[in-house]
Amino acid sequence: MKVAGPELDGSLRQQALAQVFAVGGAAVAATAVLAVVNPHEPGRYPVCPTLALTGFYCAGCGALRAVHDLTRFDLAGAWDMNPLLVLALPFLVLAWALWLRRAWTGRPRRNLAPAWVIWVIFAVVVGYSVLRNVPALAPWLAP
Predict the structure, then answer these.
(1) How far apart are CA 95 and CA 18, in angstroms?
(2) 90/83 Cα distance (integer angstroms)
(3) Burial class (CB in 10 A: 0-12, 13-18, 19+), 57
(4) Tell me: the pLDDT tens digits for 12-47?
(5) Which of 112, 30, 109 is nearest to 71 (CA)?
(6) How far apart are CA 46 and CA 129, in angstroms?
(7) What Cα–Cα distance (Å) separates residue 102 from each residue in 28, 94, 114, 134?
(8) Which of 1, 99, 100, 107 is spaced 20 to 30 A from 21 at the CA atom?
(9) How far apart are CA 67 and CA 93, in angstroms?
(10) Cα(10)–Cα(81) distance, rounded to whole angstroms?
(11) Is 104:19 a contact under the CB 8 Å cutoff?
(12) Distance CA 98, CA 83 (A)
């Protein structure tokens, strides 16, 4: 049984699909570059701006190396570089797939997410950024 609701017209639906595929294509292209150009070799990519300016690791430090390792099916290496990214990637892929489904069916997004979900994600990212700079936790969380 199909539930009636607001749907996007043809041109808006095409625009929504183009945006979904543009983001997906950009992600695939960036992943392909990371698969070919090894970020483990010094000088291949710029240093993280947060690390360069403050000397502290941010939540994203090690993400390029983690994605490179994932393209080599090295889950342990990716985990060593950025465990939060490894845990977040399945959710990001799921979010993209749900976005694709919404665009394909022509259903508009009702809301981003409940406020508590956004606050929990924010707290996890900030907490992870702080914890990976604690010297006692460096062997497990620092890239």
Answers:
(1) 16
(2) 12
(3) buried
(4) 888 989 999 999 999 999 999 999 999 988 888 888
(5) 30
(6) 20
(7) 20, 12, 18, 41
(8) 1
(9) 14
(10) 44
(11) no
(12) 24
Hey, what are 70's tokens? 């994932």
Question: pTM higher than 0.85, yes or no?
Answer: no
Say which residues have a Cβ less than 8 Å from residue 7's Cβ, sequence separation at least 6: 13, 105, 106, 107, 108
Rounded-to-integer distance, Cα 91 and Cα 101, Å: 15
Distance CA 141, CA 143 (A): 6
Could you report the per-residue pLDDT of 69-121, keeping only the tens digit for each? 999 999 999 999 999 999 999 999 999 999 999 999 888 777 778 899 999 99
**Which sequence spans correspond to the domains of the chain?**
10-141
Structure tokens at 42: 């010094």
> Which among 23, 32, 31 is positioned nearest to 97, based on CA atoms?
23
Please say whether the beta carbons of 66 and 88 come within 8 A. no
Instruction: Kindly tell me the sign of the dihedral angle through the C-alpha atoms of 68, 72, 77, 78.
Output: positive
